[in-house]
Amino acid sequence: MSHQKKVFLTDKVMRKFTVFIIFSCLTLFSFSQKTSIFIEDKVYTGYVIQNFLNYDSFPKLSPAFINEFKVGHKTLGKKSWHQYYNYPEVGVSFLYGGLGNKRQFGNTFAIVPNISFNIKTYDKSSLKMSFGWGISHFNKPYDSIDNPHNILIGSKLTHSAYIVLQYQKYLGRNFYFDLAGAYLHSSNGHYQVPNGGMNLATLSVGVKKYFSPNNKFIEQNRPEKRAKSDIYLNLGYGIHEFAGTMRPVGTPKYDVYTLTLLYGKNYSYIGKYFIGFSGKYYKAFKYYIKKDSLYDKNIDLNSTIITFILGNEFQFGNFSIFVHGGLNIYTPFVRNFVYSDIYKYNINNILELFISTKLGMRYYLLNPQTSNFNIYTSWAIKANFGNADFTELSLGFVF
């Protein structure tokens, strides 16, 4: 397959990820039939963090300015999970702005589903923590000819995530004043390098308006955790470049196929732990094995990585966020030809060889607390310790 076709397939997959995010946005508003709807607008200002201090040509920066418009609702107890999380707010944010260097970093637009939890409530104010994960578009990504100094963002489409600590003060007439500090991150999951990742440390001010603030909370008896254990079978697919974080650029993109088998057990109504194994088959490994005649036999087997996994999941009805931490127990190609003498490398390289991590979102077709069989889709970033490896889109079955 030609490089041009690979790029087309990559863009096609990223469009599927975009559809998945939009679908997730829509499902957020189906969690509760009784809602307390709000809109919020705030302006962030801060600086892009210079990840690579030894990079001489890092672009000069002015303050970044990003506007966030959010539509959401306060959960009121219609679903059992609302009470477990102390009636959080669920929303979808649309962010747009400049990044402090119009020529080399340009502008970004993002769609970010998010959830906000009350940390402390006072008489007419509150302290909240918000988490969001979605997708961003950049109009000035890296280009080897026209924009070679943007080493942070190598593609137009990326993952986008933020964490916000927010103080909210009541002003009257259902208006609130917001003051917040936030950390924003964007990365393409290593499907195209350079992929240093864009990080912003910001402060923000804004206002929030509630349109139906008098809805009362619905209090129900909290159900017990689900006693039945589950078996998860997950089939995944991803695309990445077989390159370092920064270079070489312009290398081909390769497919990655994953098969994961997990045992899951609820430890609470909203939490589940996992233990199991995952196999990952890398087309890039196979290409280099055959090109350089590295193995005489078992080429496909030597193109795989097998990982022992421990994981955790937090459920929000049919939607969930999960994290996996793993130990690579079978890595023949990487061990023998990427880190052939790991003890000459620093501790980070050793950790990248052995430690596997994954952060993702799932959407279950049926209620995971009441269904003995289920089907789900998931979207996740797989990393080697802290360095992104590939973005995975998968289909799973629960037995």
How does this structure look, described?
- This protein has 399 residues and is mainly beta.
- The chain folds into 2 domains: 3-210, Beta Barrel (Porin); 230-398, Porin, CATH 2.40.160.
- Helix content is 15%, strand content 50%.
- The protein contains 6 helices and 16 strands.
- The strands form 2 sheets. The protein has an 8-stranded antiparallel β-barrel with strand order 1-2-3-4-5-6-7-8.
- A hairpin with a 2-residue loop joins strand 15 (374-384) and strand 16.
- The longest helix is centred in the first third of the chain and has 26 residues, at 3-28.
- It is flat, with a radius of gyration of 22 Å.
- The two termini are 37 Å apart.
- The model is unreliable at 1-10 and 26-34 (pLDDT under 50).
Q: What best-fitting shape do the alpha-carbon axes yield? A: flat
What quaternary form is this?
single chain
- Structural class from helices and strands? mainly beta
Task: Give start-end ranges of low-pLDDT stretches.
Answer: 1-10, 26-34
Note the beta-strand portion.
Answer: over 45%
For the biggest sheet, the summary is:
8 strands, antiparallel, barrel
Number of strands: 16
CATH class membership of the largest domain:
Mainly Beta
User: End-to-end distance, in Å?
Assistant: 37 Å
What is the count of distinct domains?
2
Number of helices: 6
Helix content: 10-25%
Mean pLDDT reading: 89
Order of strands across the main sheet:
1-2-3-4-5-6-7-8
Radius of gyration of CA atoms, rounded to a whole number: 22 Å
In N-to-C order, the SSE pattern is: HEEHEEEEEEEEEHHEEHHEEE
CATH third-tier fold name of the largest domain? Porin
CATH architecture of the largest domain: Beta Barrel
